[in-house]
Specification:
Protein name: Protein-lysine N-methyltransferase LOC103328691
Largest sheet: 7 strands, mixed
Order of helices and strands: HHHHHEHEHEEHHEHEEEE
Structural class: alpha/beta
Distance between the termini: 29 Å
CATH topology of the largest domain: Rossmann fold
CATH class of the largest domain: Alpha Beta
Helix content: 40-55%
Strand order of the largest sheet: 3-2-1-4-5-9-6
Function: S-adenosyl-L-methionine-dependent protein-lysine N-methyltransferase that methylates elongation factor 1-alpha.
Number of helices: 10
Pfam family, one: Methyltransf_31
Number of strands: 9
Radius of gyration: 19 Å
Bound molecules: S-adenosylmethionine
Organism: Prunus mume (Japanese apricot)
Shape: globular
CATH architecture of the largest domain: 3-Layer(aba) Sandwich
Keywords: Cytoplasm, Methyltransferase, S-adenosyl-L-methionine, Transferase
């Protein structure tokens, strides 16, 4: 959850952070783990919002407390000491999407809408307006807000924006972006079940032109760049892997190659605040300068804007919102 933290001395934290080996995960465990990590749709969730706030903060604090170990593959079982959350493991997602595919086939269910339908609506309409503004030469900056009203006739610009959704899950975000007027749409996920589900759901609503591919964003095989890259909940999941800190570094390296120069990255997170995402990008920029041994090279990413319309609330004396959506320009 954006903006909230539990203290590092919370004794229950280390208990909570111990997950079962992935092949021992039951359906109930999976549902509890998902609830304990984030705010998601009403579908399958029985906890009230306050409980989910607290649980998400616990999962995040657990992630932050653990020092990075040597990098290990996603396919490995978590070690007894270092488990952060099942949601960082591919085995978790493979099992989750096997269930969701079965639910789709038997009952026609679409599966989770992570962070809820309201957030998805805000993200897609805000992103559309951002892209139209950029196409028309109105670059937002740290101070300006993005206009919330659609720009007249702006839709014609959207066909210039190739879109990649990384960790697309059921692909509903791309369906929404399609409704907003984007037409060159690709979704990737490292879980084959997610890609099967996303394809089936898109075909069901008559959107077979959305391309879905199996691809691990940390080891991407995509041979092209995109004007707009969106991520809703994927960096969060990656950060919850036992080697989350290392994987987050890999994430920025990879994503910087996927966003075309002049393109935009829009990240929606429930585990990092807007300021934390901006800070993470600044660290990545600094690392890149050091690696390239070129003090004069431009920052790879530059903060553009963020959604300011999410409801905020007070918790432990801090003001926070449940999710943060931040846009970065690829220089
Ligand atoms: C919280 S879900 C969000 C799904 C979707 N973006 C949405 O908003 O509904 C995280 C997604 O990221 C995917 N994922 C996690 N790590 C990934 C990686 N390294 N490469 C590709 N997909 C990944 C998972 O399979 C899962 O579908």
């Amino acid at each position: 959850m954006a903006g909230l933290r539990l203290g590092p001395d919370d004794s229950e934290l280390s208990q909570q952070s111990r997950a079962a080996p992935a092949d021992l995960i039951s359906d109930d465990d999976r549902s509890v783990a998902a609830d304990s990590w984030s705010i998601k749709s009403d579908y399958g969730s029985t906890l009230d919002d306050d409980q989910r706030h607290a649980d998400a903060a616990e999962a995040l604090s657990a992630a932050n407390l653990r020092a990075p170990s040597d990098y290990s593959s996603d396919k490995e079982e978590p070690d007894a000491e270092g488990v952060t959350s099942m949601l960082g493991l591919q085995s978790y997602w493979d099992a989750a999407y096997a269930d969701e595919l079965a639910n789709f086939r038997e009952h026609g269910h679409t599966g989770e809408v992570w962070f809820g339908a309201d957030v998805m609506e805000v993200v897609t309409s805000w992103t559309k307006n951002l892209c139209i503004d950029i196409s028309q030469g109105r670059m937002p900056n740290h101070v300006d807000n993005i206009k919330s009203d659609p720009v007249e006739q702006g839709d014609k610009y959207l066909s210039d924006w190739s879109v990649l959704d990384i960790g697309t899950g059921n692909g509903l975000l791309l369906q929404e972006l399609s409704k907003q007027g984007f037409s060159d749409l690709t979704g990737t996920d490292y879980s084959e079940g997610a890609v099967d589900l996303a394809r089936s759901l898109a075909a069901r609503v008559g959107l077979p032109n959305i391309h879905f591919l199996v691809d691990d964003v940390l080891d991407t095989k995509l041979g092209r760049q995109f004007q707009l890259v969106v991520d809703k909940g994927t960096l969060d999941a990656i950060g919850l892997h036992p080697d989350g800190s290392i994987k987050r570094v890999m994430y920025w390296d990879s994503v910087s190659r996927l966003v075309a120069p002049g393109g935009v990255l829009v990240i929606t997170s429930c585990n990092s605040t807007k300021d934390e995402l901006v800070q993470e990008v600044e660290s990545f920029n600094q690392r890149s300068v050091t690696q390239e041994h070129d003090e004069t090279s431009k920052d790879k990413f530059q903060y553009l804007s963020h959604v300011r319309t999410y409801p905020t609330f007070m918790f432990g004396g801090s003001v926070g919102s449940r999710v943060a959506t931040v846009a970065f320009l690829r220089n």
